[in-house]
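Example (one chain per record):
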Amino acid sequence: MAELKMSLSHDFEESLRGEVRGALDKIFDEIRQGSGYPEYMSVEQTANYVNVSRSTIDKWIKHRGLPTINVGGTTRIKRIELDEYLSKFHSNK
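Predicted structure:
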């Protein structure tokens, strides 16, 4: 990877650092809040959360061991368990 060295004014550097910190804070807040998704998601919400079809989520549940819970006859997926489930597949690559 090529290295790029630049000389920035102190004020510009501080302003840039502030912008980057603000952007990172926003991203981390969204991650902590689940980007507006509830802690326990319906199958449809889960599909939207990971940007796949509902039938893909159904296959993950039936054939790939995606953990679910049943609440009043409705299937729910705990967001943090889904994130952990997906990270297993990402780390296997």
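Caption: The mean pLDDT is 88.
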